Amino acid sequence: MGKVIIFGNQKGGVGKSTCTLLAANALASKPFNYKVKVIDLDEQQTIGYLYEGEIERGTKPIWELIAYPHSITGGKIHKFLKVFNKAMEESDLLFVDLPGYLDEGGKTDTVSPMADFIFIPFTPSDKDTYSTETYLLAMKQKKKQVKEEQDRKLAVVPFANKIDSRIKSQISYVKTVRKAFKEMHGIKSMKNMLGSYKDHANAGIDTNLYGGINHIKESNLTKWINELHSIIKK
């Protein structure tokens, strides 16, 4: 049965779909070779459209996509649970791309407690960080809910994204945010950051960039993947 991994945030543009792609591509490839599935629950279907376009151009997928833009509220949840449980049983890692908002009784509210890991990307912006903290607090409640109702752990892990490590103010900002998340909320962030998207903005469904970025330590995608994998293994 696969572990369920979410990249989530209520703030658009922080890179949750791109990070889902980067992680799925890397972990489905050597040296990891996990059997990976991705459920695209976002109504925008960013991953879904990219996936379909790549297939039309003859690209062979290295993981399986399950496009699910439909509602899962009310009686519709039973149909979704059949899809979700089947995907979880048939994979080592199941990534879920959620919509970019918080809801009550909807997709984010319902699916978050099903996860094993919720990774929360944030960028060096006060506006983004405020939204991220709101999302983090909501996921902290989910963490508590999972412990009380299911007697298991849900890991909630923020990480810095779209960082230009040449700008010292951004690095300082990230350190301050990490410290605040840990001291105020008891949530530890990832050590490694992701850098500017100029290196991986065009990653497709089979673009494995693991091992391919070595120029700047702080923005090294390979180190980020290694840390992500280490967290998932634990």
Kindly list the characteristics that best describe this protein:
6 strands; globular; single chain; 234 residues; Rossmann fold; alpha/beta
Short description:
Helices cover 41% and strands 13% of the residues. The chain has helices spanning 16-27, 46-56, 77-89, 107-111, 126-150, 168-185, 221-233; strands at 3-7, 36-40, 64-67, 93-97, 117-122, 155-160. The chain has a 6-stranded parallel sheet, sandwiched between helices.
Topology readout:
Layout: E1 3-7, H1 16-27, E2 36-40, H2 46-56, E3 64-67, H3 77-89, E4 93-97, H4 107-111, E5 117-122, H5 126-150, E6 155-160, H6 168-185, H7 221-233
Polypeptide structure, described:
With 234 residues, the chain is α/β, with parallel strands linked by helices. It has a single domain, classed as P-loop containing nucleotide triphosphate hydrolases (Rossmann fold, 3-Layer(aba) Sandwich), CATH 3.40.50. It is 41% helix and 13% strand. It starts with a strand and ends with a helix. About 3% of the residues have low confidence.
